Amino acid sequence: MSEKIKRYLGEEVKAEEIKEGKIPIEKFKPKAKYAWSAGIAISKFLEELKKGRIIASTCNKCGRIMVPPRIYCELCFKPTDGWTYVKDTGTINTFSASYLAADATRLKEPIIVAIIDLDGASEGMGIIHKIGEVEDWKQLKIGMKVEAVWKPPEEREGAITDIKYFKPVKEAATL
Amino acid sequence: MSIEKITNPFDARHWIGHMEADYMYTLGVVGERFFKELKENGRIMGTRCPNCSIVYVPPRMYCERCFAKLEEWIDVGKKGTIHTFTIATIEKDGKKLEKPVIYALIKFEGAHGGMIHKIGETDTVCIGMKVEAVLKSPEERKASINDIAYFRPTK
Amino acid sequence: MYGKKRVAIVGAGLTLFRRRLKETGKELAYEAAKMALDAAGLELRDIQSVVMGTAPDAFDGVHMKGEYLADGAGAYHKPYTRVFVGGGTGVFTPLAGWWHIASGQFDTCLVVCEEKMSSCYPHPQYAFTTIFDPILERPIGMNLIWIFALEMQRYMHKHNIKKEHIALVSVKNKGNALDHPCAQLAARITVDDVLNSEIMAWPVQRLDVSPTSDGGAALVLVSEDVAKEITDNPVWIDGVGWCIDSTHWTNRDLYYPDYVEYAARMAYKMAGIKNPPKEIDVAEPYDPFDYKELHHMEGLLLCKKGEAPKLTAEGVTQRDGDLPINPSGGLLGVGNPIAAAGLMKVCEIFWQLRGEAGKRQIPGDPRTGIAQAWGDLMQYGSVIVLRR
Questions:
Q1: Is residue A105 part of a domain?
Q2: Residue A113 pLDDT more than 90?
Q3: C329 — alpha (psi -120 to 50), left (phi > 0) or beta?
Q4: CB contact, 8 Å: C178 with chain A?
Q5: How far does A124 lie from chain B, in Å, by closest CA?
Q6: Which member of A116, B59, B118, C158 has the greatest number of CB atoms within 10 A?
Q7: Contact (CB<8Å) B64/C58
C-alpha cells in the first residue's frame, strides 16, 4: 500500500455466492492424458526394480554414485560412465506424515513419506518413497535405518511402486 | 547411449497419467454485465472508448490502446458481418462429424473485435455475408456465450 | 556500473488479494498496471516495453496465459515477454524489467504480475501434482505440501529448532497484515493457535501456511534520464540476482537454500553490499510458509545459519526492530497469488523506502531494502536490492 493510493480495487466473490447461483461462472474440464516415457536411464532403473534391485549410475570424474540414475552427470556435464547396484536399505534424511491427499482432501490415516538416502550411493543421494509398518509416526526420526519392502516378483511391473514402501530396520529401532 | 526412434509413446517404457484439474471461471466485472444483458434482456452490448472512438464487442473493462477505463455501454444490435469462417468436418477428438458445422468470426457494425460462433440455417457461407444472432429462449439462457444459439443469414 | 543505464522504480500498483475475485486475470492485470502508471504519472503511450510474470498456466486454467493477459498488462503492439520461474516469478519479473532498460534497449518498462488461482478447483494443490517427476515421484501420490514438510523437518532437525519458534513468524506476519489494506488473512493470533491448528503434513500445520489467492501487482521501471524528468523520489534497482539448484531435489540437503545465497551474493556484489545485516534496513523474504522466512533470512545472509529463529524471538524482525522482516505482512498475512505476491514484496520495499507505507512504515528513514522470492522444486532464488 502507498498512503497516496486511496482505494484498492478488486471485488471479492464468496464460495456461497457461486453455490447459490448469484454469480455466474463458466466451468471447464480439460481432457489431457499423457504417456510419459521413462527415458533411457530410468527405463533401466525400472527394469532393475522389477528384478528386485536398485541400480545407480556413476561418474568417474566427480566419483558420485547417483540415484535416481541419469545418463549425464549434471555437475560435470558429461555422460555418466557406468552402472552399479546400491542396497535396498538406507537412512531417513527427512520425513513427513501427510493428512492431505494429492487433491488436498483430508485423510484419516496419514501417508508417511520420506527422503531415503540409500546405502551404497553417494552421501545424500536420496529417493522419495513411503514409509510403512510404523504404528505411530511420531516415533520416526531423521537418521533412522530403513529397508525396502518389495512386492512379490509376479506383481512387479517395472515401476517405483514395485517397492511397496520402506520400513524401519528392526535392530535399529524399537517400533 | 542410444537414441531410440519411437513415435508412439506406448512403445517405450512409460507411465500413464492425466492432469486432474477442473476449472470454474468468473466472467469478470465486465463479462458478468455483458452476459447478464444477454440473458435477461437479450441484448448484445459493447463498451466504447471515448479517446480512441472504438467500440469493443465483446465489451472490455479497459481500452487496450490507451488504457482508459471504459464505462460507456452501447447496444450494438444483433446484426453483423462474417469476417472469416471455417467449415468443420471433424470433431475435437478427430472423429468425423455427421454434418459439417460452420464457424465464423462475426463483426458487429461500428464495433471493434468480434465473436466466434456457429452459423445456422444455411449450408452456404461467404466472407461479407450479413448475419444476425438467433438467441435461445429466455428460460434456456444461462449467462453464457451459448445463450446465442447461432447466427443466421439475414433475410 | 552494471548495464548501460541505471534503472529506477517510479510507480507501483496492487489489487486486493482474496481467495476469489470477480475480475478476470486480464482485469486484475489491468487494475494493477493502471494504478502503477497513475502513481508514476505516466500513460500507456509512454511505455516502451512490458514484462509479465505469472505462474503455471494450470492455476488460471488458460493455456499460454502470458499471451492471454497481454492486453491487460498494456502490451498492445509493444515488445512483450512473459517470464516464469515458479514461485520465484514475482521478484524475477522486475529483474527481467531491469535488463530491458539496463541493456540500453528501452527507457521505460511496465512490469505486471497476475495470478488467479481460484479458477482451479476443488483445490489448486491438485494442479501442483504435475510439477513432480511423472515416473518416480507422482506414483507415490505427491502433494505439494510434502516438499515443504520435508524441508521444514530437515531445517528443524539440523539446528534443533522447535515449532513454537517458527510459529512466531506466522504470528508476526498475520499481525503486520492488519495494517495492509489489500490483505486476505490479517489476524491477531498466538503461537498456541498455530500449534493447535490442523496438521496438514507434519510438521506443517494449517496456520504455518499462506492461502491461495487471486490478485495483481505492477511496477513502472524507467531509465535514470526519464526518472530525473518525472520524479524527485525514484527508488533505484541497485542489485539483481537469481540462481537455480539441481532439479534432483531428493539428492540435496534441504536444510539450507544455497541457491538463495548465490542469488543474494550476485545482487549484493552489484549493489556493493559487504555486510548485509548492517547495510540492509528492511527485507521482504519469501514466506509462503512461516519457516521459509527464517530459511530465507539465512540464505540472504541476514544472519548466521540457524540463527533466524532467535532473532525472531528477540523481536529483531518486528517493524520496530533492528531488522524489520516482512513489514507488509508477507504471503502469510497479505495472501499468496503466486507471482503477484512476490511483486507485492517489491512494491512494499518501494513504498517503505519512499516513506509512503502509512501505518506499516518502519521507523528510521530506511534507505536500502531487499525483496526475495523462491520457487520451482525447492530450487530457485530471485533477489532484488532497492535503494533510495
A1: yes
A2: yes
A3: left
A4: no
A5: 27
A6: A116
A7: no
Q: Is A163 on the interface with C (CB under 8 A)?
A: no
Residues of B with CB under 8 A from a CB of A: 1-2, 4, 6, 9-10, 12-27, 29, 32, 35-36, 142-144
Assigned C-alpha cell, C377: 522444486
pLDDT digits (tens, 9 = 90+) for C350-384: 999 999 999 999 999 999 999 999 998 889 999 99
Q: Show residues of chain C in contact with B26, CB under 8 Å.
A: 20-24, 118-119
Residue B63: how many CB atoms within 10 A of its CB?
A: 23
Q: Closest by alpha carbon to B126, among B80, B78, B83? A: B83
Looking at residue C221, what is its pLDDT? 98
The domain of A97 spans 39-172
Chains that touch A (3 or more CB pairs under 8 A): B, C
Number of domains in chain A: 1
Question: Which grid coordinates belong to C221?
Answer: 521501471
Task: Summarize the confidence of residues C124-136 as an average pLDDT.
Answer: 84
CA-CA distance, A148 to A161, in Å (whole number)?
11
pLDDT digits (tens, 9 = 90+) for C190-247: 999 999 999 999 999 999 999 999 999 999 999 999 999 999 999 999 999 999 999 9
Q: Cβ distance A65 to A120 under 8 Å?
A: yes
Is C254 in contact with A128 (CB distance < 8 Å)? Answer: no
What chain B holds in terms of domains, given with CATH numbers, is: 24-153 (2.40.50.140)
Asked if C355 has any chain A CB less than 8 Å from its own CB, the reply is no
Q: Report if residue C198 sits inside a domain.
A: no
Examine residue A17 and state whether it is found in any structural domain, yes or no: no
Return the bridge partners of A147, or none.
A89, A167
Cβ contacts of A27 on chain B, cutoff 8 Å? 22-25
- The answer to whether the CB atoms of B28 and C119 lie below 8 A apart is no
CA–CA separation, C124 and C49 (whole Å): 31
Check pLDDT > 90 for residue B16. no
**Which CATH number do you get for residue C99?**
3.40.47.10
Q: Answer whether residue C135 is part of any domain.
A: no
- Domain annotation covers residue C69: yes
Q: Residues A6-16: what's their mean pLDDT?
A: 91
Would you say residue A136 lies in a domain? yes
Query: What's the structural domain count of chain C?
Result: 1
Per-residue model confidence as pLDDT tens digits over A53-108: 999 999 999 999 999 999 999 999 999 999 999 999 999 999 999 999 887 889 99
Write the CATH number for A110: 2.40.50.840
Range of the domain at C268: 7-121+211-387
If residue C157 lies in a helix (H) or strand (E), which one and from where to where?
A: helix C144-159
**Residue A6 lies inside a defined structural domain of this protein:** no
Q: In this complex, do B14 and A13 lie within 8 Å of one another by their Cβ atoms?
A: no
Alpha carbon distances (Å) from C111 to C12, C47, C106, C108: 9, 10, 13, 10
CB < 8 Å from B in window 34-53 of A: 34-38, 40, 42-43, 46-47
DSSP of B76-139: --SEEEEEEEEEEEE-TTSPEEEEEEEEEEEEETT-BS-EEEEE-S-S---TT-EEEEEEPPGG
Helix (H, G, I), strand (E, B) or coil at B41: helix
Q: Is residue C137 part of a domain?
A: no
Q: What is the pTM of this model?
A: 0.93
Is C76 within 8 Å of B29 when comparing Cβ atoms? no
Q: Give the one of B13, B19, B36 whose C-beta lies nearest to A32's C-beta.
A: B19
